[in-house]
Amino acid sequence: MIKLQAPHFITRHVLFALVAGGIGGVVFMFFLLEFDHYTSSNEFCTTCHSMTYADDSYQSTPHYNSPSGVRASCGDCHVSEGIIMATYDHAIGTKDLIKQLFGPDYDDPVVNLLHLPEAAFAARDWFRKRDSATCMRCHTLEAIQGVRANTAAIHQEETGGKTCVDCHYNLVHRHVPSEQTFKREAWNAMVEEEFGLEPGTAAQLLSSE
Amino acid sequence: MRLLSLPSPGLLAKTLLFVLLFGCLGQVVAVKVALDPDNWGHPEGENCVSCHEKASPGLAQQWHDSAHKVAGVNCMDCHQAEQSDADAIEHEGQIIATIVSPKDCGRCHEQEFKEQAGSVHAEAYAIIKDRIPALAHNMTGSAMQAAGCDQCHGSLVKVRGDGTLDPATWPNSGIGRINPDGSKGSCSSCHGRHAFSKAQAREPSACVRCHSGPDSPDKEVFEASKHGMLYAAQREQMNLHADTWVAGQDYTAAPTCTTCHMGAAGKIPTTHDVGLRNAWNLNQPVSYQQYLVLFEDGSKLELPATEKAPKRGTELEKADGTMAKVKAVITPDRRRKVMSLVCLECHGKGFTDAFMTQFDNVVELYNSKFGEPAEAIMASLYERGLLTPLPFDEPLEFTYWELWHDEGARARHGASMMSANHAWWEGMYLVGRNFYSRFIPQARAVAGEQAAELIDPVLASTGQHEWLGEPQQANPILGWMPPPAPAAPPVEPPVEPAEVPAAAMQLAPAAAAAAAENEEAAQ
């Protein structure tokens, strides 16, 4: 019988700490996995009323209802793959929670819509910086066929130096112009018209925040 | 119009007009663009084409077949936009606009842009803007404005706050479209995208999308005329693809719409002011000859020649309500003269003048016998409160509308372009039938006891409705002749104050019934 001689600094306490730490680490990893999974779900995101506006438009698009039944959840697009980056994204994402709690009243549809462009610009930047990585979870450039004869050719021949979101934006959420051509006055006027507000109300709401 | 910008102190207004209309003697060919080619051939254009050959191959092929491509003009040259433009969008890394306005085309086609600006075409929306709601909104619904009125007259294009074009106002290529950049008109109304073929725009079909149908059947009128007959038979001799297209020089087979209203002919230069050569306005309740007022700012206005011509330098209100200074006035006679010069390429002077007399006689007959009395009767009914001011809530208003807007316009257009059928059976015959069998009886019913005061004197004053007072005239056309003699005395008509209308009333059961009711009420 071979007798293992543990190094003398492995005392009973150290051994206990290692085992407890190991189990704790594994539990923590499982917790993170479950946490990221849960916090990436549509149910979690729409627990904030402010997110239901984004949900409404999403539900009318093929990313929610596709003929094949594939459904992209909030997190599929907006949270990076891999536990480290997913956790990082969620950590950064807590700023949205802080803004929800202490910032403007995003639950109000008018306030929400007035702030939508900045949110859209930030999201587009996020996709661009990651080379549209979350799109490519499901979509593989080489495999894109499309329903029209030339869709494949366009994706093979015309996409050099471009990332998905360069061309494909305004797919899922309400239409917001590109940041370059966005005009705040026109957007405010649209919101005012849509909600039957007096002209100038939108600018007042924004400046009073 | 380019010569307008030259200072011409000391010249009499007439001389100026002469210079205006005939000054460009040498310039009988289509104007070449003045802009240097360095200004086109945008480097990004190739990328557009490469992708659009796949994404929208039809559109790309049209461009490949175009003179634009040959000249090196690409997508970006026309579609590029500034970030600050209301309708600017980001597309594949470029800032572009979907709508290419006359102002955009005018970067190269400067003369055409200036000519069409302020023309009756460019003002087609502005002119009817206030009249649209009655039929398009009240009687039907606003969906009809986009699908109907605006398709020809043009829409007031609305760019929504999210940068998209409001589908209530776009797609639209109506000729008087108000574009997001403020310019008016749409070149692609006549010049089909994206080939922009000269030959296509010279065809009558370039005009028929709008100039057809019950109220402006110019397609039908042309096809039923000698001009249309010759065009149909000799189309292959029209030389439609020629670089220059001067009537009498490059082609003689037949005229098209373009030939007379815009085209170069002999000494007459081509123009994109399509109403320039029209002496009459034929689309009003009563036709009037019209001045063309040219303003300092390059805009134009048509004014009835029944009033005194405005003087140079005076301030006038334009169609859009703003004020501008008068630069020159083109009289109806001068406009007629230009049109007649086109005729002279193929016809003699006596023939041309006599034809114009025949045409003028029809317009004057329509005016004096039907248009003016109908207008006066309607005005008096509104004035007395017998009709509500709200349009089209009373049957008489439809009757009146069709009298001048459809039937009356058909008669006048038919006479102007030599379709006997449209001048008469589709036109003045229907005007007469409407006037005697619908309009007057309905107006009498509306006027009630006031008919003798409001309607009879108007009819009598024209001196053209007395024939109704001779009910015993022979009747070979309907196959009945009064028995020779002795004839039974005619049945006395019901007691009525005036002779002429009493007879007219016999044609109208509704009015007779109304009159009978009145009598009963009186008893």
From TrEMBL, chain A:
InterPro entries (UniProt xref): Cytochrome_c-type_ET (IPR051174), Multihaem_cyt_sf (IPR036280), NapC/NirT_cyt_c_N (IPR005126), NapC/NirT_cytc_sf (IPR038266)
Residues annotated as domain NapC/NirT cytochrome c N-terminal: 13-175
Predominant subcellular localization, coarse grouping: membrane
Any single biological process term in GO: anaerobic respiration
GO molecular function, one term: metal ion binding
An example Gene Ontology CC term for this record: plasma membrane
TM region(s), chain numbering: 12-33
Keywords per UniProt: Cell membrane, Electron transport, Heme, Iron, Membrane, Metal-binding, Transmembrane, Transmembrane helix, Transport
Keyword Metal-binding applies: yes
Locations listed in the record: Cell membrane
The family this protein is said to belong to: Belongs to the NapC/NirT/NrfH family.
Protein name: Cytochrome C
Organism of derivation: Lamprobacter modestohalophilus
From TrEMBL, chain B:
Region named Disordered: 474-502
One Gene Ontology molecular-function label: oxidoreductase activity
Keywords: Signal
The keyword Nucleus is annotated on this UniProt entry: no
Composition skew (Pro residues), residue ranges: 481-496
Pfam families: Multi-haem_cyto (PF13447)
Top-rank lineage group of the source organism: Bacteria
Name listed for the protein in its UniProt record: Cytochrome c-552/4 domain-containing protein
Organism: Lamprobacter modestohalophilus
Lineage per the UniProt record: Bacteria, Pseudomonadati, Pseudomonadota, Gammaproteobacteria, Chromatiales
